[in-house]
Recover the amino acids of this structure.
């Protein structure tokens, strides 16, 4: 424990002094520390008041150290260098324990967020820095360690591991059906409010495509509400605004909590697409990244949940 701490001045005074001594100018020190010359001059004046001696001889456009100033500089320079080195080591250690994970907006909001708390409770020394975007290029940025994207498994330069497939079915809030006609057939959908997702960055399976794959005429049904992200569509469905298309695995926790139901039972469409965990080929993953990747694969272990449908 440090004793007699009262003799120590503030660190920002010492930093201003060290830079001003090196550059022999209060104005140059201000530019270096991104503060005004007046701010540097004030810190030096308060430092001189603290030690009750002059540390600089002021010239017209430059300054030079007094004997006491040189004595102070000889003492604080190695101390500041040690502090910088320790700080750099700590930052590097924290950087090492941070895993940068990117995912689509839907996966981030609906699949990852409900699970992150449990991960952090089990791995308190690892920080997941999550980036959410429907632009693949942003998710595959150079500084990302892992990414979760929708596709068919082909991303050149990346090792892709399938997390879960794509099974799509209608979902709505339980209260939405109160006082409305039952949905006992595809044709019955035309009597209901349908929520559509329109996004320039993402090729979504929309109502027209879903109906076409079910062998129904898509022109008989017209969406009554449109949003630009999938999480918004699910929120709209939960709020009782209509029926949205639910992606299996992404809406599981809403189905389990009965926030949403499947009004058409087992009716669904399965595509060739899925959600994949991407890692760059040829790169040895850091220990922390490997832990996160293993956790993601464990969380998706129920990816065969909809296989029997």
């Amino acid at each position: 424990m440090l004793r007699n701490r009262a003799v120590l001045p503030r660190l920002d005074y010492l930093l201003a002094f060290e830079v001003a001594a090196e550059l022999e100018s209060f104005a140059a020190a201000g530019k270096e520390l991104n503060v005004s010359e007046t701010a540097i001059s004030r810190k030096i004046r308060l430092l001189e008041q603290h030690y009750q001696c002059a540390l600089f001889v002021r010239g017209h456009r430059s300054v030079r150290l007094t004997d006491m100033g040189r004595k102070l500089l000889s003492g604080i320079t190695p101390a500041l260098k040690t502090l910088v080195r320790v700080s750099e080591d700590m930052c590097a250690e924290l950087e090492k324990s941070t895993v940068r994970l990117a995912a689509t907006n839907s996966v981030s909001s609906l699949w990852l967020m409900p699970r992150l708390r449990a991960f952090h409770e089990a791995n308190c020394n690892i920080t997941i820095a999550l980036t959410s975007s429907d632009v693949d290029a942003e998710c595959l940025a150079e500084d990302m360690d892992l990414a979760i994207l929708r596709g068919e498994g082909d991303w050149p330069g990346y090792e892709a591991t399938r997390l879960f497939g794509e099974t799509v079915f209608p979902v709505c809030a339980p209260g939405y059906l109160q006082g409305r006609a039952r949905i006992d057939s595809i044709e019955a959908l035309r009597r209901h409010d349908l929520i559509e997702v329109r996004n320039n960055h993402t090729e979504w399976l929309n109502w027209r495509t879903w109906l076409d794959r079910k062998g129904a005429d898509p022109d008989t049904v017209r969406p009554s509400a449109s949003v630009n992200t999938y999480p918004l569509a699910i929120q709209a469905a939960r709020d009782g605004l209509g029926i949205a298309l639910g992606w299996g695995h992404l809406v599981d926790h809403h189905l389990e909590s009965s926030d949403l139901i499947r009004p058409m039972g087992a009716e669904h469409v399965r595509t060739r697409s899925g959600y994949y965990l991407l890692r760059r080929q040829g790169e040895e993953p850091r220990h922390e990244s490997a832990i996160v990747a293993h956790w993601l694969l464990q969380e998706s272990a129920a990816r065969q949940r909809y296989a029997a449908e």
Observations:
- The chain has two domains: 8-95, 99-299.
- DSSP finds ten helices and ten strands in the chain.
